Amino acid sequence: MLTEVLNPKPGVLGGKIGDKINTLETFYYDNKIVRNFAWATIFWGLAGMLIGVIIAFQLANPDVNMGTQYTTFGRVRPLHTNAVIFAFVGNGIFMGVYYSLQRLLKARMYSDVLSKIHFWGWQLIILSAVLTLPLGFTTSKEYAELEWPIDIAITLIWVVFGWNMFGTIAKRRERHMYVGVWFYIATFLTVAVLHIVNSYEIPVTLLKSYSGYAGVQDALVQWWYGHNAVAFFLTTPYLGMMYYFLPKAANRPVYSYRLSIIHFWSLIFIYIWAGPHHLLYTALPDWAQSLGVVFSVMLIAPSWGGMINGLLTLRGAWDRVRDEPVLKFMVVAITAYGMATFEGPMLSLKNVNAIAHFTDWIVAHVHVGALGWNGFLTFGILYWLVPRIFQTNLYSKKLANAHFWLGTLGIIFYAVPMYWAGFTQGLMWKQFGEGGVLQYANFLETVLQIVPMYYLRGIGGILYLSGAFLMLYNIFKTAKAGSLQADEEAEAAPLMPATVGQHHDSHWHRLIERKPFRMAVWATVAILIGGLVEMVPTFLIDSNVPTIASVKPYTSLELQGRDLYIKEGCVNCHTQMIRPFRSETERYGEYSKAGEFVYDRPFLWGSKRTGPDLHRVGQKYPHSWHYNHMMDPTSMSPGSIMPPYPWLFEQDLDISDTEAKIEAMQKMGVPYEPGYAKKANADLMKQAKEISADLAKEGIEVKPEKEIVALIAYLQRLGTDIKVKEEQVR
């Protein structure tokens, strides 16, 4: 039908109208921006993976923390996740979108200037993460650790990307918008909503802020964001690219247009509800947890619909998979997507989650998706795309095949030990021996058991990284052998009004996919419903977060200590959420209540236990235990894999911002007494001197202004509020 409109048969359209439609316009695709994003993808991919290898070995051997405060696991782990997600995958998305969007819409990008601003702005945002995260400037919210000025920059650059994309859609020469474009639109809109809502924060200083949400509400918003960052940054744009690059590489049409419609709408509607499955058995209201479980289980249908549509696109081309490394990468990528999207719903089942949550099982699950789905699809696209824009052939298929096998082995060596470690952890934590006593009461026993798996995981990372270095060489030699076709000539007929020569198409979806702004509105409605249903009651109905009268705001010293805890990234290894299981209450104490977190901005429930939960650690040990533990963890816990923190004993606590922090908290409703901000530092020093005096009684001389004193104050406060008789305040 479309061919007939663009090239009408004699007699179908007559006179000047027919001549006008047959008039082709010459224009030029912008390959320079694609080239730039391709090089950035490779560079940041190698950087992010290298950091990943380092932190893998840091968990196995604390000496790999390198003895500085800027290279510890707690500081560097968020740098790894941000580098892989937003630098490697982010640049990969923009590379694929800028290449495919122009060709699907038969138009050059709307503005070369916007393309350049987008590229350089995104690289500067990544560079700001590289500079700030190791320095300890972090919100501690997973996948959203960057502080408020960088959040604003992300918003502005994302708007530039959307402006450029929708401008290109508006001037397209192709009436029908292909399925890949639907996914790009949903990605832009949803990531914008997620980022703005989750980044609501109150600035304190230039690089310090407090979350606009507290406790349970902060946790709900964060994992609504966190889960859907995976959905709409690591999944939907890659599905859009799969729908374009896989058929191109296989030289086959997409298996089913109707299946792609079902896949798209059901995926974006259902995905947005699933965030609470990260918070099962926590202080989140039960109804919200249950909603998350129901929609997570439903997710398997659209996810596998997309996987099946991708794999069946290869019908008749499977013989080429044996010889073409591009297709090898893409097949394994789609298979990894299918595995991860089966495992996700399975992990959301409460009986499975009870064992898996907080263990390395989740780490394995995430990396099957990241290394297999995102990594391998990006590699496949790079191997297909770079030779085309440089007008040459791939330098070496043998090297590409070697990369494929190194990467595949890397995934196996990474994932299998982590699954084993996860099962081991989950079962050891819950194991009771004779007499109903915890068999592994010392948490460290469960850690030492899995250290060999951490070494194997590191070896897997080295294999995967080695393959990526082979790709760098192969792509570099390919580019060197050719020359960039910066402005690629193309021809297409101009887009005519729908009433002129337009054949009637009865399929209802044409009414949406030919109207991009209508599609944008409906996609926005689809993704907003789930978030609103989960968040509005949690914020507006008090019974969802019942308060506890004995829970008081943190003192100024405890607040500063909490910020040090956040700065050092302690939440990357320690949770503050005791679930209502006998194994956890026996090990840690009374399970956590929603009302205990009403002054926690941000919440610190964590998502991984490399060390024990700390919610009831307050008053459990004397000050000297924490002092010695931070100076040399092995002195208190022989065999510990936690690194020492000697700088906490050397550096003075910065109290210049104490007043600003208290005032920011008061603005958000934390009930400090009137005028407390002005005397906060005096109160801080009074409490610090008391702790210093207590340490002196145990033979430890430490000045009250040192950072370690504030951290001890915070740790000694944790979980102590409900030792007083609880009184519910409705």
UniProtKB/TrEMBL annotation:
Pathway assigned to this chain's UniProt record: Energy metabolism; oxidative phosphorylation
Reactions it catalyzes: 4 Fe(II)-[cytochrome c] + O2 + 8 H(+)(in) = 4 Fe(III)-[cytochrome c] + 2 H2O + 4 H(+)(out)
Domain Cytochrome c: 556-719
Protein name: cytochrome-c oxidase
PANTHER family documented for this protein: CYTOCHROME C OXIDASE SUBUNIT 1, CYTOCHROME C OXIDASE SUBUNIT 1 HOMOLOG, BACTEROID
Domain of life: Bacteria
Membrane topology of the entry: Multi-pass membrane protein
Taxonomic source organism: Adhaeribacter terreus
Pfam families according to UniProt: COX1 (PF00115), FixO (PF02433)
Positions of transmembrane segments: 37-59, 79-101, 113-136, 148-166, 178-197, 223-245, 257-274, 294-314, 326-342, 362-386, 398-420, 454-476, 519-540
EC number: 7.1.1.9
Keyword hit for Iron: yes
Alphabetical keyword list: Cell membrane, Copper, Electron transport, Heme, Iron, Membrane, Metal-binding, Respiratory chain, Translocase, Transmembrane, Transmembrane helix, Transport
Main location: membrane
Localization annotation: Cell membrane
Family to which the UniProt record says this protein belongs: Belongs to the heme-copper respiratory oxidase family.
NCBIfam families reported for this sequence: ccoN, ccoO, PRK14485.1, PRK14487.1
Known cofactor(s): heme b; Cu(2+)
InterPro entries according to UniProt: Cyt_c-like_dom (IPR009056), Cyt_c-like_dom_sf (IPR036909), Cyt_c_oxase-like_su1_dom (IPR023616), Cyt_c_oxase-like_su1_sf (IPR036927), Cyt_C_Oxase_1 (IPR000883), Cyt_c_Oxase_su1_BS (IPR023615), Cyt_c_oxidase_cbb3_su1 (IPR004677), Cyt_c_oxidase_monohaem-su/FixO (IPR003468)
Domain Cytochrome oxidase subunit I profile: 1-485
